[in-house]
Every structure is written in C-alpha cells, then in structure tokens.
Amino acid sequence: MDASTRKTGLPLSTDELSSLQARVLTLEGELQACQQRAVALFNEAPAPYFLLDSQGRIVDVNVTGHGLLGRTREDVLRRSWISFLPSTSQSSFALLSTLAFEDALVHHGDVQVVNAQDTPIDILVQLRTQQRDGVEHLLVIATDISAHKRAQQTLLNDNANYEQQLREQARTTRHLMQDLENVTLTFIQQLHLPVARALNFFKLHRAAREKRAEAVEDNLMNMEGAVLQILNLLASVDRFMQLRQMRLTIKPVDLNKVLSEVLKNAEPIMADRDVRTTSRVLPTVQGDNRALFLIFDELIANALKFTRTRERAQVSVVTHETELEYHVGVRDNGVGFNMRHKDKLFQLFGRLHPSSEYEGTGVGLVTVRRTCERVGGRVWAEGKPDQGATFWVAWPKQPTLRL
C-alpha cells in the first residue's frame, strides 16, 4: 500500500495528499532548525565541547575547545582525543569513555590535557553519549580547573610550610630550653668552688682576727678574689643571655670598619705591649653590626690574652670566600692548644688553660658560636701547643635569622 492510499484501501484526495506533504516539510524544517540550534549551542557554548566518535577521534569541537588546546579547529579535527592527554591521564579517560558508551549515563573525572606549548592543563570532564546523524557519539564537556588545582596546591604547600615552621619552632624551643637547663646546671657547678672558697676564707678570717694582721689581710684579699670570681661568672652569664635575646637586623656591614672599631676598643689592653696587628682587605657582608662587633671583639681579645707571654705578639686577620660563605680567621702566635681538646673551646665554661694563668670564665667563645649560629654561620679553631692558633668564622653570604 503506498502513501497515497488510506487504510481503508481508498486513495487520498489531492488536497489530503498536499496537506500531508506540507506537514512533512514543516516537520523536516523544524527538525533542521533544531539541529541548527543544537550545532549553534555546541559551537557557542562557553565551556570546551568535544564530540568523539566510537574510535575516540574528534569529529567536532567548539571555539572554546580548540582554544583550550591552543590549536586551530583544523589541527584538532580527526585526531585522537587521547593524543592530547599525557600518559598519566589516558587510562582513566579510556575507562570513563567505555562506561559512558556502555550504560549511557553521565560520568565525571579529572584528567589533564596538553596544549600546543606542551603545558599540562587540569580539567574536569563530563562524558555522555549523544546522537548525531543517527550515529552514537561521545560528548566531552571540559572545565578548566587549573586555577583551582593551583590554589589547592598552594594551600597544601602553605600547610606543609606552616607545619614545617611549627616543627622548627618546636625544635628551637626544645633547644632553648636545653640551653637554659645547661646554663643553669653549669652555672651552679661553677659557683660551688668560689662560694666554698669564700666561706672557707671567712672561717679563716674569723680564726685569724686575734693573730697577726698580715694573715687577716691575706684572708680578706682571698675573700675579695672569690667574690670577684662569682661576680665575673654572673656578668659572663648575663652577657651570654643578653646576646641570645638580642634582636638581629640584617644589612650590609663593612668588616674593615668593624675591625677598626674592635682594635680601637682593644687599645688599653695593648698598651705597654709590643703587638703587631695585620689584616687583609675584608669583605662587606650581610649581617648585624653589633653582633659582628661582639664576635670579633671577643676573638681579638682572646688572641691578645693568649699572646701576652710573647715578646712580640702577632695578631693577623685573614680571609677567603667560598661559593656560599665568607671565612674570616683571627690568627695569633700565642700558646696555642692541643687539637684533641678543640671541641671544649666552644663549650659553656670550657677552658683549656688554668684560670690562675689566664683570666676568663669560658663563656666568650660560646657566645661567638651561638651568635654565628643565629644566622646559619659556623665557628671552629685550629692550633698547636706553643705554636699559636687561628679561630675561624664562616659567615653565610645569605644569612637566615634563627632564634
């Protein structure tokens, strides 16, 4: 039965046939208009749209889509979608596309695409099947989430940095508490002897009051010496703690000027002595002027103290640099020391020579070490018995302030 025949078997009239043909033409026009609107929506969509065939080849792409890839439309069409994905994303996308074709549901996932500049771009993809020209295709709608990923990574990095800072602060706090405990315990130990001596001299003085005046005078002098030793310990610890708490300011410091001020400060110590001081041209470093003055003031004073038995004392300031540090050394021709005991030099109240011969409390070099460590620096010493010593400071070119 042809289209011009009724179900009753009677042929359609000319008017009925014309009306039916007109209706068909109208429906075809509406269908074509719908297809055109669908194509327009596809092409003008603000999100990147890619239409893939069953083999994964791109059969259509909108302006935003090939713009995301940094390529022209012609460069993208007929190419495999997978070819724009790094190897780390290809398997996950293949799984999503297989699921979308099998169950006709919408699937989402995170993948990366690589643009024309070989820059990976993080995208969120939405996959669903779509009919075009009677053939099932896969519609891929992409959302650029690179900014979100960067923000997320920045947040993760910030959190990691914050946690690292907390750990460093915790370590620093433990270190400071350990320092305080060490200072307290060592200070108490150092006080025992002078206090015991002072008490003993008081007892002797009491017993000698009725005896000769010379014995009384000797006891008074000994008591005074013991009390002065206690006061020196208190002053040394006080200076040490003040330096630990001193706020450092990093700025350019000319070490030549620092050394000049240190030598001027040491003039009273060098009076009536034959002292020869020499220095190479010193660098300008990034550091704190007060801290550097205290460091070199202590090292110069240390050199002068241990050369006073020499007929002519020689104190030289030498320097050289590495890629990351300036090394400045204070060298003398004094009594020197045995390298086996070098670590004791930088311990609190550490002494290699008897206090009866060389005054001091054993705090100065510890102060130098701790001050250097506050900017990431180092100190060490080299010497030989009766052949002098060199005390080195390694000062970083890019100092980092620490507690």
TrEMBL record:
<dbReference type="GO" id="GO:0030295">
    <property type="term" value="F:protein kinase activator activity"/>
</dbReference>
<dbReference type="GO" id="GO:0006355">
    <property type="term" value="P:regulation of DNA-templated transcription"/>
</dbReference>
<dbReference type="GO" id="GO:0007234">
    <property type="term" value="P:osmosensory signaling via phosphorelay pathway"/>
</dbReference>
<dbReference type="Pfam" id="PF00989">
    <property type="entry name" value="PAS"/>
</dbReference>
<feature type="coiled-coil region">
    <location>
        <begin position="145"/>
        <end position="183"/>
    </location>
</feature>
<keyword id="KW-0472">Membrane</keyword>
<dbReference type="Pfam" id="PF02518">
    <property type="entry name" value="HATPase_c"/>
</dbReference>
<dbReference type="GO" id="GO:0004673">
    <property type="term" value="F:protein histidine kinase activity"/>
</dbReference>
<dbReference type="GO" id="GO:0016020">
    <property type="term" value="C:membrane"/>
</dbReference>
<feature type="domain" description="PAS">
    <location>
        <begin position="34"/>
        <end position="82"/>
    </location>
</feature>
<dbReference type="InterPro" id="IPR035965">
    <property type="entry name" value="PAS-like_dom_sf"/>
</dbReference>
<protein>
    <recommendedName>
        <fullName>histidine kinase</fullName>
        <ecNumber>2.7.13.3</ecNumber>
    </recommendedName>
</protein>
<keyword id="KW-0418">Kinase</keyword>
<dbReference type="InterPro" id="IPR050351">
    <property type="entry name" value="BphY/WalK/GraS-like"/>
</dbReference>
<keyword id="KW-0175">Coiled coil</keyword>
<dbReference type="InterPro" id="IPR013767">
    <property type="entry name" value="PAS_fold"/>
</dbReference>
<feature type="domain" description="Histidine kinase">
    <location>
        <begin position="186"/>
        <end position="399"/>
    </location>
</feature>
<keyword id="KW-0808">Transferase</keyword>
<dbReference type="InterPro" id="IPR004358">
    <property type="entry name" value="Sig_transdc_His_kin-like_C"/>
</dbReference>
<dbReference type="InterPro" id="IPR003594">
    <property type="entry name" value="HATPase_dom"/>
</dbReference>
<dbReference type="InterPro" id="IPR000014">
    <property type="entry name" value="PAS"/>
</dbReference>
<dbReference type="InterPro" id="IPR036890">
    <property type="entry name" value="HATPase_C_sf"/>
</dbReference>
<dbReference type="GO" id="GO:0000156">
    <property type="term" value="F:phosphorelay response regulator activity"/>
</dbReference>
<dbReference type="InterPro" id="IPR005467">
    <property type="entry name" value="His_kinase_dom"/>
</dbReference>
